Amino acid sequence: MTADRRRVRQAAARRALEIEELDALLVTHLPNVRYLTGFTGTSALLLLTRDRTFFISDFRYETQAAQEVGDSASVEIDRASVWDRLARVIAAAAVPIVGVEAQSLTLRDAERLAAMPRLRVQSTNGIVERLRVIKDPDEVDAIRRAAELAAGALAQVLPTVRAGETELAVAARLEAALRERGSEWHPFQTIVASGPRSALPHARTSTRTIERGDWLLLDFGAQVDGYCADLTRTVVVGARADARQRAVYETVRAAQQRALAGMRAEMSGRDADALARDLIAARGFGDAFGHSLGHGLGLEVHEAPRLAATATDPLPAHAVVTVEPGVYRPGWGGVRLEDDVYLSPDGPVCLSDNQTDLIELMRE
Ligand code: ZN
Ligand code: ZN
After folding, report:
1. Cβ atoms of 93 and 52 closer than 8 Å
2. What CATH number should be reported for the domain holding residue 228?
3. 233 C-alpha vs ligand 1 centroid, how far in Å?
4. pLDDT for 185-197, tens place per residue?
5. In the chain, at which end, N or C, are there fewer CB atoms within 10 A of the end residue's CB?
6. What is the pTM assigned to this prediction?
7. Among 111, 97, 129, which Cα is nearest to 30's?
């Protein structure tokens, strides 16, 4: 990432400060710190004033902070206490009203700020997150590479899956393949859910043994340059799909295709959600799609915007979102298909492969 990009982002955050009539913003949410400075470590306080940026970390990150943050901020390393250092920086900068990120600041740290003299703390919500919704071309490219990596890992592992092994065994091979192909980390706990367990939208991968004819739902991610991909595929193991499996699968697939073809930037998150939801309901499965259609994707695997019945705001151009309809029948199983989409001003661009022909794994 170029220093210029970080400066542009910091400048945009400063404009938000002015609008909210704050003298400074204390950034404590680490993905936001990364977005504004490039820092990838786990200990950082970033104070953005109207004209300066202070980055405070501890001695473990002395070398890394110099390399990653560079001259995008004034780097202060404190060997004793980053919060004491912050108090001194705030006093020296003379910023009477400091905004804090309400979603990430702990009560303990709020108490530390409250103890600082002549300081008024004001709660803020999503100042940096709103900037992060609009992806620049490098960010879109990183998500695309993560999605390609994830699809490659799945293509490597799927032909080796067979009835008689456990969900965890499949997850282990998939996670190994993701790492071997260059995923920095698993952005969330890999879901491998078989048979009736595929009806749990957020199943934990378990020791259950996969049986012939089972659904196998795999929801997994990859991370490249900090950016996440999030994919779900559902396949049948060791048998041909039966009629009911086919009907459910084709419903989910048609719902996803309808959303992928019809969604647009500036459409509301609710209208995008309805593209899939209405089709599923029309085929009689309305009560079986209990979650929202998708979520934003970036440095975090769940970020703004949302594609949901309650999301009335327009989807911004240059956002990246998932499209993941599902149909779940408790005791029987479920199907979900998930792809990652860039909302370009000219229309949606699928960043993942959208290879959703029904796969029946017939290997003995
Ligand atoms: Zn997912
Ligand atoms: Zn997702």
Report:
1. yes
2. 3.90.230.10
3. 9
4. 999 999 999 999 9
5. C
6. 0.96
7. 129
